[in-house]
Amino acid sequence: MPVFYGRKVISELKREFIIKVWASIRTKLESLTADRVYSLADEIQVVLKGVSGMGVDISPLQNLLESFFELATFYDQARSILVDKAKEIEKSESYIKVKEHLELVMKERDEKYEELSAACQSLEKAIKKVKKLKSLQDVAKEEVRKIESKVSAAEKEFNKCADISLATQNASNDVDQKKQVLEDSLQDLVNYKLCLD
Predict the structure, then answer these.
(1) What confidence tens digit (pLDDT) does each residue in 13-27 have?
(2) Burial class (CB in 10 A: 0-12, 13-18, 19+), 21
(3) The pTM is what?
């Protein structure tokens, strides 16, 4: 039959209880951000005092948590000082002037951006028009080439006709000369007096 030791049982139960308390504290700490750590300090101190009142030595855990919460206190104080300084700076004349200047510069930037955006859109439209005009120019050049080809063919045809016309004119001049000779001969014949003597 096993021996039952009451103190050992109590000691084991206290140990299990402390482990569960630490697990609970750790779970709470894991879910916090640095800005909210200080808010749990008082609650955790209440738990630690309750556990230490049970006659269990948790001084290492208490020391660790006290150091941690001292850091949290320093951080919270530093953050508070920073917030106060920021508020003080925000109220200062130089900050107000710089802020107003920044707002003016940002407004100017926004206006310039809008102008640039409009200019870019206009440029894009102009580029599209240039491309369209280039396309029309290419079509017109092709039409001019076709017309020049037709003109060249017509000139060749005309030159052939001009050669015929020149030949015809030369023949016409020759015919005119022969006509003149014939008319002169006719006149001479009409004027000819027959002398039969």
Answers:
(1) 878 888 888 888 888
(2) middle
(3) 0.41
